[in-house]
Design a protein that fits this description.
about 35% helix; alpha/beta; 29 helices; 8-stranded mixed beta sheet; binds zinc ion
């Protein structure tokens, strides 16, 4: 009602007065007229708001915008005086000028191409805009940063980039000189949308935000432009954006009931979906491009816009917090979230809260790169409908309770229990929030810059004062490729690594020249510690949002020594840029034996020469005096391209010996399987991580879905079928996406060109069903090899493919959010463990089933978990007793075929590179796994362990 009256105000007056006049009645509504009158005369914030919104000269506004936005906003309180009007500026295109519609138009989403066209039009029209291309995605789309500031700043953008570079590395200046740098510098405030493709609102909102930042001449915006460089990443994952836009317009536009939500498309980008925000090692090209940009521009603030909870959650960094990060950071976070909460409450917007959602433990979220590099991560979750359709939403959880609608100290004005919600509501909330945050930044730009500098300075100082003072990766580790990979991942993040030019002598021992040294007295010394140390979770009673362990050395099976001796800071080193592998081949002869030290590139080498006859020695052997570990690959180059083998050995960083004699020990032929990777349509992400690894290492495979499995006769085409971790249960794997009464095709369509990418289906619902399970059973019994990882390992026992094995879920008290634990190899000579020298290895706990095998089959347990708290190497594990002596890998003869069950996940998010070899060996030696063992004839029920 108040809203209606006010929007009839004359255009220019409305703009002039809007913030004050709109917010007053709202406050009056909530607090009563008395409180409102107090506010109107005495509230400094409100007075400031009034002054800030008053333009130097009256600026025209768009009446049509005001009318439609009011119509699309489902309740008057879901909009703010910052966004209920649109100023007009001659020569500056509005989003509507480019798109033909306002931001928040129901039932219409904007593609990357359309959005980029708008930003480019804005750049063309205004000297306040400069676009930088960050790179290109897997599918070739551009990734942009749209910089917005005042004309002078945009003109001198390089200068400002330089200032931030100086603040990011306090060694480049003196504490005295830095005052001058801070006086001249301006913070970059990075804000991004569209990392998670079905969170569709932010890429829409950001266009309007960009427009306002360019076009609004009122003091608040002038203040932002004069004091801040706003760097908008319009779409973090452009491939996924375009796919979801096509999917929405193809399938979801008619959906008006949240209960019949058909979900998103099977793919976003090429490999992963939600995990693009868990890509701690920046394996995905879209995420790496953001990191590369970050390290060139050093934005002190990175703000990701997500959608999930109502109505708006603003991240404030609740416990558990990583204690290595700066205390300044932990106070900056609620500084911003509290300002947003109070501003938005003042504007009359309910349901804005902070605190109880995401913590500060895992450093693997994309925007966390800023906190990792002494800046500040910021994040919102607003309420999205997974499209642009207005619909009724039930906010309370279905199983009862108030969920996020309860009133709490951090949520003084909770979201409603039920609400009709629209894209425009969502736009209003996040845009108001971001504008408030930008306003705050513009009022305190120097504080932001000082903090950024001080956090960077403290990181260096902490490395001089607080142990550990460094890390050494000793020279002489047999597999140099995993060492190189680990170091290159550190370098990717800007961490300085040195190579010792002389022996390093510290109290932990002596390390030879050539060892790698990471000193902690560097700007990113804290990040080095966070990545390399053992994660000690601060409170076992807390839960966390994601993984609790990621220790790189344990994940890579590379030796990393923590050094608590300050002498490490004086070690003589030369800087390492990136490590380029140089393998070597010695000797001469027909056979080239590539020595197996557990290098993942062994698989690459084998697959590079698929037609070349290749043997593996089943036990350690000798060539002259040289030791040849079991599982080394002997390429018979007769009639083949010996020079190409040598070149591959060298480029892959391997060690090989050429010889004319075959080993005296037993060998088997390493013939390559026709490999299929099975994917459900509903959960392609974990499959995506495996696909990414296979593509990286050059392991060819066919991606199959329910369509191929149900068609049967699988043995005709595939020797090995791998079912990566996917779904949570066997039932989920088999029945997958529920059918809601209509087919859901994912097919090539000229109108929706991104659909049908990576696989096609007339109907992605229904899963393989019992029919598919039966075909897989036939396949195995007929001689096929089935390999299952983590949660997929529930499937063979529960659907009767592996009747002798029992799979159970752990108890409700069990909680293992990604700890790294010990595993014990039971059959060290088994081909799966070629290249693994130790009996006890570190593995990431994969949350697969608790397996039991009957006594008679105990020799099929290839690896087990010793369990108990003492086997936990990093991160949090509540209930480690439950996995005590449970099988970790079982290879089971079944009919004429076999099933290999991994309870864990040996190919997890491009992290546990030390485990990859077990999966690769399973594939390389697929038809030699059972060779040394007698088949089990008797079927006995599983004995509980
Ligand atoms: Zn998200």
């Amino acid at each position: 009602m108040f809203h209606a009256t006010l929007t009839q105000a004359p255009r220019s007056t409305k703009h002039l007065e809007a913030p004050l006049r709109l917010s007053l009645p709202r406050r009056a509504l909530i607090l009563g007229a008395f409180a409102a009158s107090i506010l109107s005369t005495t509230s400094p914030a409100l007075a400031q708001g009034k002054a800030a919104a008053r333009p130097a000269a009256a600026q025209a506004t768009d009446p049509e915008f005001a009318r439609l936005v009011k119509e699309w906003t489902t309740k008057p309180e879901f909009i703010s005086p910052l966004v209920d009007f649109l100023p007009l500026k001659k020569g500056i295109p509005t989003p509507k000028d480019a798109l033909g519609r306002y931001v928040g138009t129901p039932n219409r989403l904007t593609s990357t191409t359309e959005a980029y066209a708008y930003y480019r039009a804005l750049e063309k029209a205004s000297p306040r805009v400069k676009i930088v291309v960050m790179g290109r995605t897997d599918e070739g789309r551009e990734q942009l940063i749209v910089n917005i500031s005042n004309e002078q700043t945009i003109k001198d953008l390089e200068l400002y980039r330089g200032y931030l570079g100086q603040l990011a590395d306090p060694r480049k200046t003196t504490p005295e000189a830095v005052k001058d740098v801070i006086a001249r510098a301006k913070p970059i405030y990075y804000v991004s949308g569209g990392q998670h493709s079905p969170e569709t609102g932010p890429p829409e909102m950001l266009m309007e935000l960009a427009y306002r930042l360019v076009a609004d001449d009122s003091p608040m915006y002038q203040g932002i432009r004069d004091n801040v460089i706003v760097a908008i990443n319009p779409v973090v994952e452009p491939d996924g954006r375009d796919r979801i836009v096509d999917w929405y317009h193809r399938h979801k536009i008619e959906e008006t009931d949240e209960r019949t939500n058909s979900g998103g498309p099977p793919y976003w980008g090429k490999y992963v979906f939600h995990d693009n925000n868990r890509d701690i090692n920046y394996s995905q090209v879209t995420m790496k491009n953001v990191l590369d940009w970050y390290l060139q521009w050093h934005p002190p603030i990175m703000h990701d816009l997500h959608e999930s909870v109502p109505f708006m959650y603003t991240f404030s960094g609740q416990a558990p917090q990583n204690p290595t990060l700066d205390p300044i950071l932990y106070s900056e976070l609620p500084w911003f979230s509290n300002y947003e909460k109070s501003q938005m409450a003042k504007f009359g917007m309910p349901g804005v809260w902070d605190f109880a959602f995401v913590d500060m433990w895992s450093p693997g979220y994309l925007a966390f790169m800023s906190s990792n590099h002494n800046g500040m991560i910021r994040m919102y979750e607003t309420f999205g409908n997974g499209g642009a359709t207005t619909m009724k939403r039930t906010v309370v959880p279905p199983d009862g309770g108030a969920g996020q609608t309860s009133r709490e100290w951090y949520r003084p004005w909770p979201p409603y229990k039920e609400v009709v919600w629209s894209m425009r509501n969502n736009t209003n909330y996040m845009e108001t929030g971001v504008l408030s945050a930008l306003e705050l930044t513009s009022k305190f730009p120097k504080v932001i810059l000082e903090n950024f500098y001080k956090k960077s300075f403290n990181s260096i100082e902490s490395g001089k004062k607080d142990a550990p003072f460094g890390y050494v990766i000793p020279a002489g580790q047999k597999d140099q490729t995993r060492v190189a990979q680990l170091i290159n991942l550190l370098r990717l993040q800007g961490i300085e690594v040195g190579k010792a030019t002389a022996e390093v002598s510290v109290k932990e021992g002596k390390f030879p020249a050539g060892s790698y040294v990471i000193k902690r007295d560097q700007p990113y010394g804290r990040l080095a510690k966070i990545l390399l140390e053992k994660q000690t979770f601060p409170d076992a009673n807390l839960r966390t949002y994601d993984d609790t362990g990621w220790t790189m050395g344990l994940m890579a099976h590379a030796e990393v020594k923590e050094i608590a001796d300050t002498a490490i800071l004086q070690a003589a080193v030369e800087p390492v840029t990136t490590i380029k592998l140089h393998g070597s081949q010695s000797g001469a002869g027909r056979y080239v034996a590539a020595l197996n030290f557990g290098d993942n590139n062994m698989a690459s080498l084998r697959f590079k020469f698929p037609k070349m006859k290749t043997l593996a020695n089943e036990k350690a052997a000798k060539i002259g005096d040289a030791n040849v570990p079991a599982g080394s690959l002997w390429f018979d180059t007769q009639g083949g391209d010996a020079a190409a083998v040598r070149a591959a050995v060298e480029s892959l960083g391997l060690t090989a010996i050429a010889t004319d004699a075959l080993p005296s020990v037993a060998t088997h032929e390493v013939d390559l399987p026709r490999l299929a990777v099975y994917s459900t349509w509903g959960n392609t992400q974990e499959v995506g991580w495996v696909r990414h690894a296979f593509d990286y290492y050059g392991i060819p495979f066919t991606l199959i879905y329910k369509e191929q499995v149900k068609a049967g006769n699988l043995a005709k085409d595939y020797d090995v079928i791998l079912i990566p971790n996917q779904g949570r249960t066997a039932k989920g794997l088999v029945f997958d996406i529920p059918n809601r009464g209509k087919a859901l095709p994912y097919k090539k369509d000229p109108k929706f060109p991104t659909l049908g990418g990576y696989g096609e289906s007339d109907d992605i619902t229904g899963g393989m069903g019992l029919e598919g399970a039966t075909e897989l059973d036939k396949y195995v019994n007929g001689g096929g090899s089935l390999v299952t990882l983590a949660a997929a390992s529930y499937f063979p026992p529960e659907f009767g493919l592996a009747k002798l094995i029992d799979a159970r879920a752990p108890s409700a008290a069990f909680y293992a959010p990604g700890p790294i634990i010990e595993a014990e190899i039971q059959a060290p000579e088994h081909p799966i463990f070629y290249g693994y020298g130790n009996k006890t290895i570190s593995v990431r706990y994969g949350n697969g089933p608790l397996l039991s095998v009957p006594e008679i089959m105990k020799d099929r347990i290839l690896m087990k978990y010793p369990g108990q708290d003492r086997s936990v190497l990093s991160g949090l594990f509540r209930g480690a007793n439950e996995i005590r002596d449970r099988p970790a890998i079982v290879d089971l003869p079944q009919g004429k075929g076999q099933i290999v069950l991994f309870a864990g996940n040996p190919c997890y998010r491009w992290q546990n590179h030390g485990e990859f070899g077990m999966l690769f060996n399973t594939i390389l030696h697929w038809n030699d796994l059972l060779a040394s063992k007698a088949p089990i004839a008797a079927e006995k029920p599983a004995a509980n362990q």
